[in-house]
C-alpha cells in the first residue's frame, strides 16, 4: 500500500461524471479529499490523498486521464514561483520544519515532502512568490 | 603604495584594473598580506539587495493639451504627491493602492514602469486660467515620460539590528513574521559584502559617489535620512548599530526590473527591494584593511520587537557569522535565524558592477564632499499646547 497526493482538474465536459465512485469500485483505491473547489458546469479542482497498490494507483490515473481529467502529482500544498522568488529568506523564518531553507549558496530550496501545510510562508513572502496549489 | 582615484580610473580605461568582490578580497588579503594585496587590488565591489522603505520616484509626465495642473494624482490606483509643479510628482514606494491595499503599492508601480508596462494615470485639478483642464485619465509608459528618476531618501543602512519576539503572540513586522516565545530571529544585511560595512568611516563613500542603483549607474546625492555616524562602534570603527545611510539617485529609464522589486510585509505594508552596488577604491592599506572584514567580526544586536515603547530591548550582541550559521543561542536555547535581504542577488550585483568596471564602462567618482562624522539621531518630542 502506498499513499500519494494528486491534484485533479476537471474540465467543463468532465464535471458531471462520477469519477470518484469509479476509483473506489474499479481500482480499489481509498482516498481522502483534502480540498475541493467545484464550480458546477465550469471546472473543478480536487486535491486527493489516495491509498492503494502502486499498480492500482497507476491504472486509476490512466483512467482519469482518459476521461480528460488533469492529474498532477503534488507533494506540497505550496508552490514557489522561481521567477518571482529573490531568495531573500523571509519564508524560511516561519517554516518550522525547514521545508523551505537556504542552501549553501543562499538560494531558496523547497523540500516539498517536508511541508506540513501551515501556509505561513504564503503570508511571509514579500514577493508573493509562494501560492497554494489550488 | 598609495593610489589615487585618477590612477585607478586610468587603469580601468586601459582594462588593467584588478577588481574583486568584497567576499573574494578576504582570501586575497589572507594569502598576500595587507600590503601586497593593497598594491594588487584596485577596486572592491560591494552590494546589497533588500527592503528599503524610504524610496520613491520623481516623475514628469509632460503636458497634455489643454494642460492640467495635477492635484490629486494616482498611478494604477496608488496615490502620488500633488504637491509639486503641474505635471511633476513624487511616488513613494510604500504608498498602498486604493483597491488592492498593501498588496500593490508604489514600489509595484515603480517596478511595472521599469519593466516597460503601461500604467494608468488619473489626475484631478481645480482648473486654473493657465491650466484649464480639470481631469485626465490616460495610460503612461516610462519611455514616454520626460524624466523619471529614483530618489531614495534612505538606502543602504550601514548595519541593522536583528529581531526576535519574546511575547506569547505572533507579530507581523517589517522584519518579517516573528513567532511567539522567541520562535525565530530575522536579520537583514549583506554582511561582509554590504557597501557601508566595507567603508565604516565613509572614507571613500560620500556625496557624488557613482554606484550601481537598480541596474543603472546612479549616485550618492546626500546623506541618507536618520544618518547616524555617532553610533556605537567596535575598536576598528565598524558600527555595531544601524549607523550611516545614503540618499541615492538614478535614472529609472536605465534600470532593470530585476533589481527594483515591490515587496509586501504582511500586516505591515508595502516596501521596495533595492539593488545597490558600490565600488570601493583601494587607495591604501587602510582601505584594504577595512574591506577585508569578515562576518565573524561584524556585530549587531538582537532586539525584542514585542516591546515598542522606549525602544526595543536588547537581548544579545551577535556576529553575522553566528546569524548566518542558522541558529543563535539566546538564554541557553538555540533559536533559528533567517535572512530577509537576498545575499544571492547581492552577489549577482557585486559581480555585475565588477564586470562593468573591468569592461571600462564604469569609472570611480571621488566624493565631492565627505559626510560628517559624529552626526547623532534626534527623536520626536511630543509637545502640548496651542499654536506658538
* SS field, number of helical segments of chain A: 3
Class of secondary structure makeup of chain B: alpha+beta
In CATH, what is the homologous superfamily of the largest domain in chain A?
Answer: ACT domain
- Enumerate how many helices of chain B there are, as a single number: 7
Question: What is the CA-CA span between the terminal residues of chain B?
Answer: 60 Å
Question: How many domains is the backbone of chain B divided into?
Answer: 2
Number of structural units classed as domains of chain A: 2
Round the Cα radius of gyration of chain B to an integer and report it.
22 Å
CATH topology term of the largest domain in chain A: Alpha-Beta Plaits
* H and E string of chain A: EHEEHEEEEHE
Average predicted local confidence, pLDDT of chain B: 97
Helix content of chain A: 10-25%
Share of residues in strands of chain A? 25-35%
Largest Cβ-defined interface: A-B, 19 and 28 residues
The residue ranges of chain B in which pLDDT falls below 50 over 5 or more consecutive positions are none
Q: Can you describe this structure?
A:
The complex is a heterodimer of chains A (134) and B (388). Chain A has 134 residues and is α+β, with helices and mostly antiparallel strands. Chain A has two domains: 2-73, Alpha-Beta Plaits (2-Layer Sandwich), CATH 3.30.70.260; 78-132, Alpha-Beta Plaits, CATH 3.30.70.20. Chain A has three helices and eight strands. The longest helix of chain A is centred in the middle third of the chain and has 13 residues, at 54-66. Chain A is elongated, with a radius of gyration of 17 Å. The two termini of chain A are 27 Å apart. Chain B is an alpha+beta fold and 388 residues long. Chain B has helices spanning 5-14, 24-32, 34-40, 106-114, 285-291, 320-324, 343-358; strands at residues 19-21, 43-51, 56-60, 72-75, 78-80, 88-92, 96-97, 101-105, 119-124, 135-140, 147-155, 162-164, 171-173, 176-178, 185-187, 210-213, 216-223, 246-251, 260-265, 269-281, 299-304, 314-319, 327-330, 333-339. In chain B, strands 1, 2, 3, 6, 11, 16, 17, 18, 19 and 20 form a ten-stranded mixed sheet that branches. A four-stranded antiparallel sheet of chain B has the order 5-4-9-10. A three-stranded mixed sheet of chain B has the order 12-21-22. In chain B, strand 7 (96-97) and strand 8 form a beta hairpin. In chain B, helix 2 packs across helix 3. The chains are: A alpha+beta (134), B alpha+beta (388). Chain A binds chain B through residues 86-90, 92-94, 96, 102, 105-107, 120, 123-124, 126-128, and chain B through 49-51, 103, 176-179, 183-184, 186, 261, 263-266, 271, 273, 336, 338-345, 347.
